């Protein structure tokens, strides 16, 4: 049996310094509020839904792209950040579904846990008192101390006074990366996220970032992340499909409908089309009715395994935002592991959202997240 655990997509509780409510939205609150200086009209070459305004925010910063590594044959994507004046390097998983940053700390002792071995450690001052933090995931927990330092996400973008966690205890082995970097805008318990700080410190030209993930076998060149905008060289012009972000703690949007074969799923007027866009989750979550129908159509067994030779005959999923369709072909939602193949769709077990699109949607589309005030939106671009 191959493990298909979604390591990053469920945070149950975060105590003391950090507070989170992933994966659901329990309060109808604004994603962020930050004073932005100049707003000018422009054409985004993106099909706008829900009467969104067209605007550009001049933050007098930069647009910068860095390469991300593809780990676990396309299931995890990491980039290198550098912390402190010494610019100590850490590899962190890119997680659009959270707003927290943590790395291993010197309080994670090799002699006390094998899980601490093999990672760079952020050095804590011995005589300094730190606040505690604790992050509880679906099947594991990470805890340690809160620290503040400069965090260099690229050579051109250094975030001053960034609050993050120095993990002293982890509940599982992390191979190939040294922490997690949340990319959501939300502020947990008053602690600004990485993206929020970039905008507040005017480090990026636009309040946006974009992810290009290649998929395929593990590689150091697994794609790129662009802070401050998007890389026009990677997208087909005029192909963008834009949808407004829903208010709340998650990067969430609302579909108009979703079609599998001749059957339609979700009804926006009944609030059944809320979807989280989460690069930190390897799977796709959907209501039971959809998962049951899909498994029937692809003749999956009780463990979701399918006949690898028949993948090309499986149905294409059509996702609607407004009147513009996106498609997800079977090669994106079926995982191939040698001679074993299985569906990446699992049943949604949360009340706060209906669907969750993880890494597979990022492999199909170049996805841009724009946090312009009163115009927060996600744009799905066709890759060149």
UniProtKB/TrEMBL annotation:
PANTHER family: BETA-SITE APP-CLEAVING ENZYME, ISOFORM A-RELATED (PTHR47966). GO terms for molecular function: aspartic-type endopeptidase activity. Belongs to the peptidase A1 family. Disulfide bonds join 108-116, 308-341. Residues 1-21 form the signal peptide. Residues 77-381 form the Peptidase A1 domain. The active site is at 95, 278. This is Lysosomal aspartic protease-like. One of its GO terms (biological process) is proteolysis.
């Amino acid at each position: 049996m191959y493990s298909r655990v979604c390591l990053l997509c469920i945070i149950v509780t975060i105590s003391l310094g950090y507070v989170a409510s992933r994966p659901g939205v329990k309060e109808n609150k604004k994603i962020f509020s930050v004073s932005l200086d100049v707003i000018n009209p422009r054409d985004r070459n993106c099909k706008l839904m829900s009467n969104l305004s067209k605007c550009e925010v001049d933050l007098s910063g930069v647009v910068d792209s860095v390469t991300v590594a593809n780990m676990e044959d396309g299931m995890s994507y990491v980039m290198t950040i550098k912390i402190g004046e010494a610019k100590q390097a850490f590899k962190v998983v890119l997680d659009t579904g959270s707003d927290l940053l943590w790395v291993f700390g010197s309080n994670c002792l090799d002699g006390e846990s094998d899980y601490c071995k093999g990672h760079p450690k952020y050095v804590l001052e011995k005589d300094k008192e730190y606040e505690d933090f604790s992050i509880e995931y679906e099947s594991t927990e990470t805890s340690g101390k809160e620290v503040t330092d400069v965090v260099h996400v690229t050579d051109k973008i250094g975030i001053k006074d960034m609050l993050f966690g120095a993990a002293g205890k982890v509940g599982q082995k992390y191979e190939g990366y040294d922490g997690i970097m949340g990319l959501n805008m939300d502020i947990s318990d008053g602690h600004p996220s990485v993206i929020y700080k970039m905008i507040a410190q005017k480090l990026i030209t636009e309040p946006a970032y974009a992810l290009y993930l290649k998929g395929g076998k593990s590689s150091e060149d697994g794609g790129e992340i662009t802070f401050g905008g998007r890389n026009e060289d990677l997208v087909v012009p005029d192909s963008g499909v834009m949808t407004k972000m829903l208010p709340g703690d998650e990067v969430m949007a609302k579909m108009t409908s979703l079609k599998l074969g001749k059957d339609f799923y979700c009804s926006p007027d009944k609030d059944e089309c809320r979807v989280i866009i989460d690069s930190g989750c390897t799977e796709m979550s959907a209501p039971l009715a959809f998962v049951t129908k899909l498994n029937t159509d692809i003749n999956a067994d009780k463990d979701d395994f399918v006949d690898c030779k028949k993948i090309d005959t499986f149905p294409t999923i059509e996702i609607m935002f407004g009147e513009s369709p996106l498609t997800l072909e079977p090669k994106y939602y079926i995982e191939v592991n040698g001679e074993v193949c299985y569906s990446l769709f699992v049943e949604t077990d949360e009340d706060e959202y209906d669907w969750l699109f993880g890494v597979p949607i990022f492999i199909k589309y170049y996805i841009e997240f724009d946090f312009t005030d009163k115009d927060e939106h996600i744009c799905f671009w066709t890759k060149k």
